Amino acid sequence: MLPPWRRRVLAYRVIGGIPGGEQLLDWYRPRFGRLKKDGLEGRDKALAEMTRLIRDAGRTVAGKDLIEIGTCWHPVLAVLFHGLGARTVLMTDIVSHVRGELIEQVLDYCLGHSRELAEMGGGDEDTLKARWSALRPGRQRWVDVWRDRGISYRAPLDFSHSGLPAESADLIFSNDCLGYIPVPALEAIMKESWRVLRPGGFIAHDLFVYDDLAIYDRQIPPWNFLRYSSEEWERIGNSHFHHQNRCRPSFYSKLATENGLRILHEELVMNGMREEDLDRSILHPDFRALPFEEIACNHYLLAAEKPKVRGVSASPGPS
Ligand SMILES: C[S@@+](CC[C@H](N)C(=O)[O-])C[C@H]1O[C@@H](n2cnc3c(N)ncnc32)[C@H](O)[C@@H]1O
What we know:
The chain is α/β, with parallel strands linked by helices. The chain has a single domain, classed as Rossmann fold (3-Layer(aba) Sandwich), CATH 3.40.50.150. The protein has helices spanning 4-17, 21-32, 34-38, 43-56, 76-83, 100-112, 114-121, 125-133, 142-148, 183-196, 230-236, 249-258, 285-288, 292-295; strands at residues 65-69, 88-92, 151-154, 169-175, 197-208, 262-270, 297-305.
């Protein structure tokens, strides 16, 4: 019998292979899956990480034009940044996920946690509450109400060739997104980020770099996917519907610098396991010699800026 994590991969493949299966799962997951059970309560950690990353990078969002890559179902960061005074927030996703009932959940969450969020983001609680309350759509379409207040949603939009105007954003950010994107698209996204950022603008990404199938299978460690070669992982671990690229933190920082960005801040949030509990012999030779931090990192926080250099019109990265 296959272990639970492999049964889950199989389920993704079967559902992804049925016509309309992806849409069905997209409808089901936020309503009945783990997301429904946990609600947005676990979000405070991701919000704290992103606000800390921006602060540690020496930046703010007030008065800035922001773009999010991979908003998914719950636009919590977009709403938080709007509350903190962002001029505009453009939410993007390759699949259209956001719906009216999900944005109500986000507003309930933010308004219900206004004190903690104000403290976390360094904003005034009353201002946050007023801005968030004004996002309630009432009888109007949520997209219209939000657009009038500076938050828009473009999906489906593939950020690897976004078509967005050059030098139109001050910040491009994502949470728990880039780790699911295949490497060629990731490379294109970094190039595209450089093009879309204004000089002096920056990226801020919270990258989840552990094997998320371990959430459903307590028998496997969070670095389980590093046991396999690329070919084997494609065969047993990935599917069109759920793809983990397994890139390690140093890959992302190199990708950023190769594409002309300058690192402002990086942080490795570790999974708490001890080095002596890691049996390197189970890892695939491609990963065995990595520093412990690269293996046992849960989240990698990366902020990097597009330097203020005049007259450069293309990313200096590899073509
Ligand atoms: C795990 S979800 C993101 C979770 C979400 N940011 C959050 O904080 O709850 C990853 C998202 O990235 C989106 N995505 C994948 N490839 C993309 C691309 N090339 N451009 C834009 N979005 C993409 C997926 O459709 C999915 O909604």
